[in-house]
Amino acid sequence: MQYFRALATDYDGTIAHDGVVDEATIMALDRLKRAGRRLIMVTGRELPDLQRVCPRLDLFDRVVVENGALLYNPATKEERPLGPPPPPAFVDRLQSLGLQPLSIGQVIVATWEPNETAVLEAIRDLGLDLQIIFNKGAVMVLPNGINKASGLGAALEDMGLSAHNVVATGDAENDLAFMRTCGCAVAVGNALPAVKEAADMVTDAPRGAGVAELIDRWIDREGELLDAAIYRHSVLIGATLGLGQEVSLRPDRGSVLITGTSGGGKSTLATALLERLAEADFQLCLFDPEGDYDNFAPTVTFGDANTPVAPEAVLDAVRKLGTNVTANLLGSSVEDRPEVLANLLPAVLDIRARYGRPHWILIDEAHHMLPRGQDAGAGINLDAQVPTIFITVHPDTLAAAALRSVGTVLIIGRNSLGLIESLSQEFGRPCPVLPERGPEVGEAVFWACRTNEPPVLIRTEKPKGAVKRHTRKYAQGTLGPDRSFYFKGPEDRLDIRAHNLSMFLDIGDGVDAETYLFHLRNGDVDTWLRTSIKDEELADEIANIAANESIDVAESRKMVRAAVEQRYTAPATPD
């Protein structure tokens, strides 16, 4: 399979050693390019300096420099600042202090420890909205909200790629910001312990040899990368009755068939899955022959009862990064709807082949849209690499090509267990041991039909935001100034804004111990969680951590991060 489409890599300490990329690493990067993947560099260096030390920038599709503040396209030589230039008064102040070294980029101002004290005083005295990012002794000053993650985001938007389909690798603390946003985070063997701990995978070899090791594994055994980071790519379906083991939807287990009695809750279950996929920033494309998903807010709908779908409008929307699309086919006659799908779906699959998205496709009334009599799916590449949710009350009349792609079956309805026996015949497999009873309302039978595991009864998750903790609104969104958290310290010497939970955790890891413990034990953190994030449960847990003065600052940071990530940044544990 080819799930991951691009590598985003740091420069110094990752592909470069003492500023130099060796020939073996260049050959590995070139091999990845020839295998059809894209390359993005994300570095704290300024562009002229990078051009001086790295002669093979031409290998990279995009280069993010100045720690996320400047985007460079090596093919066109275009430079695009992603933030305002340094305030002249700030630059004058630092120069007048004689700070050495001191470098002024298009957006960044860079120096080294221990100059951070003078830099902080200048920011405070001039009332500037600037942040400090530390990196192994380097002190980088940037506008608030700009870091390697934001810079990579701009590069991916420019290229039309989703972060889900990116492998990120780095070695230092400033790399964590962009590594955590990507589909698989890999630390090279020489990375700092905190980076290794946060990564999905750690290479045996250091620096460029580690990146070459990653590339070899990627090209030869890509499934291992997806397995290592599968929690980023799975969404919760429900939990088994009795044991309560969570069951999740994975993109590498084939398509999903939702079937069962009419009116049993198939659309409810599908909507719950779609909500969780949308919350996790997976791009969706829904083919809706009966207008059942018109009110599904995360999508842009094309067509209605009076207006047939315009294919190019749908495809233009699918090409746009971050846009979920519903094609409402009510405007076409019942007889014509399968033909509309047959014309649209191959083009959508072509887009996916190029960009790795849309990540999930849904086809409602699949027995009508892909009927077996005409074997409408024969000319459509519905293989396991294109996860599709088929919804039908008549799976026995679904096109053979669609059935062959199914890896997970979800069955609704008390009297629907007989479907397992008939589907087993369709799949050419022995009928497994059936559950003792059929599913009641709010339940389903979960069957991983490609494995030897028997089908099990699960309690399904409800739609409409029932799993609140898995939303990314507060984890990675942007809260307004009045709802952000500010690290000021006991004497208000700082004014560092965290406009979401992820930034709060990252800044909290970097500020001095006195400032961190001041806010934690002063009740500022749990108050913010209670009033701005509106999470009473999390606020109470943080308050309990703060009240235990026997816990040192390192353990406090670790416990706070674990509490937040459990609710907001970590999807459900995969089955």
From TrEMBL:
AAA+ ATPase domain sequence ranges = 252-416
Hey, what's the signal peptide range on this chain? none
- Stored SUPFAM superfamilies: HAD-like, P-loop containing nucleoside triphosphate hydrolases
> What molecular function does GO assign, one term?
phosphatase activity
A GO cellular component entry from the record: cytosol
Cited Pfam families: AAA_22, Hydrolase_3
State if Transferase is listed as a keyword. Answer: no
Tell me which UniProt keywords the record has, alphabetically.
Answer: Hydrolase
Keyword check for Transcription = no
Q: Which residues form a coiled coil?
A: none
Name of this chain's protein:
HAD hydrolase family protein
Q: Which organism is it from?
A: Lichenifustis flavocetrariae
